[in-house]
Specification:
The chain is α/β, with parallel strands linked by helices. The protein has one domain (about 1-270): 3-Layer(aba) Sandwich (Rossmann fold), CATH 3.40.50. Helices cover about 45% and strands about 15% of the residues. Strands 3-2-1-4-5-6-7 form a seven-stranded parallel sheet, sandwiched between helices. Strand 5, helix 5 (about 155-175) and strand 6 (about 180-185) form a beta-alpha-beta unit. Helix 1 packs across helix 7 (about 220-230) and helix 3 runs parallel beside helix 4 (about 105-130). The longest helix has 26 residues, at about 105-130. It is globular, with a radius of gyration of 18 Å.
């Protein structure tokens, strides 16, 4: 993990889940961590805990709603004003919605698109020019195995993650010759608050990742450790769980007509 020694890492969605775990695992190695999220109280709590353990670590926080262009621009301007040169960008912030598309709330759908696609793309666009100056840098985009398939009842989320994975692959081809490695981290179900937030208020739609067989679940610590290893080894993509990796590899070899039937049967069985 020497790749991360002395790095300046910016982590979005840093107030919970994988974002907090990224901060914890990078803290012993990094020179500076910039934690970005909407919940400033949570960011301050995390910052204080990190500094208590690692007194020499420089931890900055920036409160931002990344669905808002003005907040993204303010973040980039703040970094410039503080003379902070980010050489490791972790686009972790993401939102989901669980339930039929026909009954979804449009404001929620728009927010998913704004955070999962627009914010990730815009923030990357804002930071890449300065990252090119650092000589060696890396971008880790947190995607999902959902991005490999059409997923009924999470249609917008899955489609947004398909964008993240494909964007990461194309960006890697462009930036790798210039010294910036790009990796897509594609975890499966992780026990975080993601599904609780994705659940619709008052919904009786109870399917959750915790009905998934235990061997397909991956802890946040394992997901982050594998994601960082993938970046350090300059890998284009990482699926943290080996069982999931095998299942995804086999499923992607199937024709789409057969995949449609298998996914539909699975969803119909879950909804009985």
């Amino acid at each position: 993990m020497k790749f991360f020694e002395g790095c300046t890492a910016l982590i979005t969605g840093a107030s919970s889940g994988l974002g907090v775990e990224f901060a914890r695992q990078l803290a012993p190695l990094a020179h500076c961590l910039i934690l970005v999220a909407r919940r400033e109280d949570r960011l301050n709590f995390i910052r204080n805990n990190l500094i208590a353990t690692y007194p020499n670590l420089d931890v900055r926080i920036f409160k931002a709603d990344l669905s808002q262009e003005t907040d993204r621009l303010s973040l980039a301007q703040w970094l410039q004003s503080q003379s902070i040169l980010v050489n490791f960008l972790i686009n972790n912030a993401g939102l989901g919605d669980h339930g039929p598309f026909a009954t979804s709330d449009w404001n929620r759908v728009r927010q998913i698109l704004d955070v999962n696609i627009t914010a990730l793309t815009h923030l990357t666009h804002l930071l890449v020019p300065s990252m090119l100056q650092s000589g060696r840098a890396a971008i880790l985009n947190v995607s999902s195995i959902a991005g490999f398939f059409p997923v009924p009842n999470m249609a917008v989320y899955a489609a947004s993650k398909a964008y993240v994975t494909n964007f990461s692959e194309a960006l890697r081809m462009e930036l790798r010759p210039l010294g910036i490695s790009v990796t897509a981290l594609c975890p499966g179900p992780v026990p975080t608050e993601f599904f609780a937030v994705a659940q619709r208020p008052g919904s009786d739609f109870q399917e959750s990742p915790f009905t998934t067989p235990e061997f397909l679940l991956t802890s946040a610590a394992e997901v982050v450790a594998e994601g960082l290893r993938a970046v350090a080894n300059d890998r284009p993509r990482s699926i943290p769980n080996p069982f999931l990796w095998l299942l995804i590899t086999l499923a992607l070899a199937l024709p789409i007509c057969l995949l449609r039937i298998l996914i539909s049967c699975y969803i119909n069985r879950k909804n009985r």
